Amino acid sequence: MTVLAVRDLVAGYEPGLPIVRGASLAVAAGEILVLLGPNGAGKSTLAKAVAGLVRVESGSVTLRGASLLDVPAHARIRRGLAFVPQTENVFAGLTVAENLAIAAAVLPRAERAARVAATEALFPDLAEARRLAAGRLSGGQRQMLAIARALVAQPAVLALDEPSAGLSPKLVGVVMAKLRDIRDSGVAVLLVEQNARAALSVADRAAILVEGRVAHEGAGAALLDDPQVAALYLGGRRAA
Amino acid sequence: MMGQILVDGVTSGAMIGLGAIGLTLTYGLLRFANFAHGEFVTWGAYLALVVAGAFGGAAPIDPLTFGWPLLAALAAGMALTAGLALGLDAVLFRRLRRHGNAIVLVIASFGASLALRSALEFAFGPEPYYYSHDIAMTLRLAPGMRATADQLVVLGVALALMAAMHILMTRTPLGRAMRAVSENPDLARLAGIDTSRVLRATWLIGGALAAAAGVFLGVTVQLRPSMGFELLLPLFAAAILGGIGSVPGAMVGGLVIGIAESAAVPLAGAQYRAAVAFVVMLVMLLVRPRGLFGGRA
Amino acid sequence: MTGLASYACFFLTVALTYGLAALGLNLQWGSAGLFNVGVAGFAAVGAYAAAWITAAPAASHWGGFALPIPLGWIAAMLAAGAVAAVVGAVTLRLRADYLAITTFGAAVSLQLLALNATTLTGGPFGIAFIPKPFESLAATPLAFGAANLALAAAVTGVAFRALERLTRSPWGRVLRALREDEAAASSLGKAPARFRLQAFVIGAALMGLSGAMQAQFFGFIAPDNYVPVLTFQVWVMLVVGGSGNNRGALLGAVVVWGLWSFSGTALTALLPSDWQARGAALRVVAIGAALAAVLLARPRGLIGERATVSRHVEGEE
Fold first, then answer.
1. DSSP type of residue A133
2. How far is CA C250 from the centre of its chain?
3. Could you tell me which CATH number the domain at A2-233 has?
4. Contacting A residues, span 85-104, partner chain C, CB-CB under 8 Å
């Protein structure tokens, strides 16, 4: 059942200079859709446009059928869309507990404590570091906090921009395993990634963005097998 | 002598700190130096004067020079000036933010500062006003340290306001949201924070605290249309010293500037107070631009 | 009729001196992107330097070397430039709004110095009896006025031409490139700090010259002249005229000075005498409000910068 639907999206930072040029994709509940593509293709921009941080010139973004585009960015989490940016994705000057408390503030007062506790249960390392300033966490812990922050409000859609960036292979595996758990709980996950192999290890479906449009789409494994796609977009030897 | 410098410095430093809190908050949030902030200090003082006048003459509380009417006027002045700050943003800054950049905003704030100050001068004239014409009796705190009862009460209330501010920033959802927006407005939005609401709250709080500083200045010194403007350089110095965006920084910065100015009086004379603040600020900018508590330069 | 004509001469003369300051500010801001909120300070330095050099000796202040006026003006430019070199060396590397605050602070400090260093500057009373150009013509107001106007026009004209050539020269191109994209320009091997400092110093020298010329034309100076209102007036002149544009700077100076003088005269005529001082305050309110209105009407067109800051705090408004 499609939860997030993006149709013919045209978006960019400057009016008249779109980076996303008519992209369409859909993510269903309990599914991980991986968005791949070369640098500059517009993957991050698409995710940010869905989150409300980048201007949309035309096209539609709907969540459970309702348009998100007229919803201001700060209200989208309440509609069920959570986004984890690639960098600066935690409040470094605030403690772990405060980061989570901010996330919980969108919920009714009676639910807040329970939701924070439930989220901490998913990330035991964070529970221990509750009083620590987020800026003092290690890279991996910070990434976990960024994801945890997004989950406190139990979003229907979780979008992430390159969560594996800068992490060691082992931590990448941990993150991907976490995303699998999140997917299994019924969340629709839109995963933007540069690290194709890691992403495709958890992907149910994958789409490849080239110059602002979705060029290929299909089940993750099938894409890995397609030699042409693999050579062009999935790494191996870097182009000179 | 050291003791007296400390007494005078801490009293004036507390007032500078109060005024600097609002300045550092809006500076941190909006990334522009609001030259009109000094006028919130002045308007706060004069608005309180008008309100206090409406109460007519009420006997002061011994040994102070003022009574309950002034406290009521303080509250009224803070509320009205909070509204003035919000109004100035709505009428001028918000519209310019959409199209302009920091430079346009600074010039506009400079112009607004001149207009606001001159409006008061037009309405009240340039001569000084006083909340009370009673003589303030000095109390002897320790050998070589004297203070008026007014100064002590003012200091007490100022410190109480600062403590309240600290609690607001560290223990309330609004304070948390303000710190979040100050650090990363985009992430704050993603986390569900309405940044416009936080901004409005910041203007209200900043204006109110500046007004309190103005009333305190009026009580301990006098009211003149240029009083807030003369405080502007020390306010900027305190905010920069403490680190832009940091409320504890503004408070500590204010105290440091107040004491530094006070200490410089025997050396350079009282007229050069603003120049002392300037020098302190300059040194800070060269040595450690992000200030004592600041995160960004 | 001669009264009106000689008044017109004087008006234009003063307007042109303001134009000089606006030209200096245009070099600093329009060409080099330096945000100077301390214009009044540099004007003060120039004015006092010229006064010290050209006035007759007096007990109330230092100097009084009674030297020819051109020497006074050269001294003014050198002095203002020197102060700018010191201030600039220390502050130009700071980001724009910190530069604004520090130049503002420098101007305030200089004004405090002028006000309080009484043996040097004459304190709050300032320096009087500064020789005027063409004193010999003082008996015939029209000739006097015309000669002074010609002098002001000549100086301003030379400055204008020089600046136009400077901005079109390779030096000017480097400045503009630095302003647009510092990283790219400095990768070409041009040290940004040096160029910006030069622009800052030259602009300040022009402001000093402006102050000096006004000192000569009015015949007396006082610390009260060099307050933030002066800085603001020059910024308004630049903004109204269209910044980045030397012609606009001069035009703005004439227009704004005209509005200022006219409102001053109108207020003097309309208000009773005990309200005169208050009327002066009203004038400032009006000019502040007028600038706000101009900025609101055409914020991007006048300053011409792309929006950068603080918009991100209210991205959705």
1. B
2. 12
3. 3.40.50.300
4. none
Domain count, chain C: 1
On whether residue C24 sits in a domain, the answer given is: yes
Evaluate whether residue B242 is within a structural domain. Answer: no
What's the pTM value of the predicted model, to 2 decimals? 0.87
Closest CB from B176, B187, B195 relative to A85: B187
Q: Do B92 and C296 touch (CB under 8 A)?
A: yes
**Measuring CA to CA, how many Å separate B41 from each of B162, B230, B277?**
16, 10, 18
Q: Is residue B123 part of a domain?
A: yes
Tell me which residue range forms the domain holding B171: 2-225
B251, C68 contact by CB (below 8 A):
no
Secondary structure letter of residue A75 according to DSSP: G
Kindly determine whether residue A53 and residue C316, on different chains, have CB atoms separated by under 8 Å: no
Contact criterion met (CB < 8 Å) for B121 and C109: no
pLDDT in tens, chain C (317 residues): 677 888 888 999 999 999 999 999 999 988 888 889 999 999 999 999 999 999 888 888 888 888 888 999 999 999 999 999 998 988 887 777 788 899 999 999 999 999 998 888 888 999 988 888 888 887 888 888 888 999 999 999 999 999 989 888 888 888 777 777 666 666 766 677 888 899 999 999 999 999 999 999 999 999 999 998 899 889 888 887 766 688 888 988 998 898 888 888 887 788 777 777 777 777 777 777 777 777 777 654 444 433 333 334 444 43
- Assess A52–C contact: CB distance below 8 Å, yes or no: yes
In a domain, B93, yes or no: yes
Q: What's the rounded Cα separation, in Å, for the pair B37 and C287?
A: 19
- Between CA C185 and CA C192 the distance in angstroms is 8
Chains contacting C with at least 3 CB pairs below 8 Å? Answer: A, B
Q: For residue B167, is it within any domain?
A: yes
- The ipTM value here is 0.92
